[in-house]
Amino acid sequence: MERGAHWGAPFGYRMAGVRKLFFLIGLLSAAWASEPVTVAAASSLRTPLRALAARFESETRTPVRLVLAASGKLALQLEKGAPYDLYLPANPDYLKALREVHQTTPVARGTLVLYLHPRTGLVPNGPEVLLRSEIRRVALANPALAPYGQAAKEVMQRYRVWDAVQEKLVFAESVAQAAGYAAFAADAGWIDLQSAKKLPGRFWRPPPESHRPLVYVAALLRARPEAKAFFDFLQGEEARRLFAEHGYLPP
After folding, report:
1. CATH superfamily to which 112-204 belongs
2. Rounded to two decimals, what is the model's pTM?
């Protein structure tokens, strides 16, 4: 009996340690298994939002799921009841039709450019270059769904080339898709500055007064603590720094 007691005590301690270890693992698993913060955002915010989501996850252990698409397409999904926690369109007008918005804040401002593929051999000094015969296809995000597409339409109307280039337009679902078209299949494209800087061609920036501002606004749609924490995170110094690093202007 004494020998059994001698070996049983250490074994009991070991079992207690194992149970404690599994308990701690369970707590960590529960933290990571919590419902993610679902963020619906304009596709042009893909790069900075991925960096912000990763930073937020590392600091809070709260997962973030990004749904990236055209602002207008996401608005239609929200109208049909999509359960997104936050919505970040490139135009605050899309928030007007939403039934429940707890808080909003502008977080960044984007830049529209006219990009030309190198094979054209042309210099983009304005929308008039789209009238040249060397340019047969012009990529453009659908103006009915994407703020960048609407802004591009406004610029072309202002410079009186909209009607003349109708047959050349290739509509994309979002500005990110338009950038993909411009990189390969199209000769020109109205895309965001961040995408244009990654491509080998040249680009032209329209004057700010030629179209409505491309202001990204964060809207808190579900007042969950985790969602509110990410909403607050987007207003912090670290978020402003990351937006600036990726070429976005202050709102």
Report:
1. Periplasmic binding protein-like II (3.40.190.10)
2. 0.82
